[in-house]
Amino acid sequence: MPQADQNASAQETAKKAASPAKKTVKTTAETAAGSEAAGEAAPAAAKRQTEETSEAFAEMFGLSQIEMPEAFKVMTERTLTNARDGYARVKAAAEETTDVLEDTVENARDGVLGIQYKALDNAKANSDATFAFARQMLGASSLADAVEAQSAFLRERFEAMIDQAGEMRELFAKLAEDTSRPARAAAMKNLERAAEK
After folding, report:
1. How many CA atoms, within 13 angstroms, populate the side-chain half-sphere of residue 56?
2. How far is CA 195 from the centre of its chain?
3. What is the pTM of this model?
4. Could you say which DSSP state residue 39 is in?
């Protein structure tokens, strides 16, 4: 009979120990969610969470009569506050990096589209000039007219090619500038923050 009483007592103790642990997990999750939503109530939520966790551990390990030292409570609160602050800084940096990447990709997309449109315009202008030259050659009445038309066509196409190459160079330079601008701005902003600290 004494053995059965001991087993029943051990089972009751295990149930009591498990109950505060479940309560602690639930309370911690609820408090964390509530403190993120509250924003400014984070220090109060951290203190409440620390007290609830301390009480749950005290009940779980039978330490309800023992008071936790104030220094331990302060250290725990400071650690939780520092962890939340660190998370907020990392989250802000990640969001800022995402914005920079989005701007960079958008600028690159716009620049590449501009280059593609210009290349198509150049191809159309070149093919139109070639067909016009072919029409001229078919209408030439003498060899001298044909040679003159060919010379004029080659000179015109050479000048057009130089102009087109210059326009494409400008578009590629603009693409490089626009694509790198968000990253340069973010780097300058980070350097200014570092200089302030």
Report:
1. 17
2. 24
3. 0.54
4. S
Residue whose C-alpha is closest to residue 49's, from 37, 36, 34, 31:
31
Closest CA to 82 of 93, 90, 94: 90
Instruction: Write 57-65 long-range contacts (CB < 8 A, 24+).
Output: 57/20, 57/24, 59/16, 59/20, 60/17, 60/20, 60/21, 60/24, 61/17
Say how far apart CA 52 and CA 152 lie, in whole Å.
91
| Residue 42: band (very low, low, confident or very high) from pLDDT cuts 50, 70, 90 | low
Strand intervals (E) in 26-141? none
Query: Under a CB-based contact definition with an 8 Å cutoff, are residues 104 and 179 in contact?
Result: yes
Tokens 């650690």 belong to 79
- What single-letter amino acid sits at 195? A
Which residue, chain included where needed, has tokens 């490089």?
176
Q: Is the dihedral of CA 76, 82, 88, 90 positive or negative?
A: negative
Q: Pick the closest to residue 109 from 197, 14, 175 (CA basis).
A: 175
| 54 vs 111, residue with greater confidence | 111
CA dist 16 and 31 (Å) reads: 22
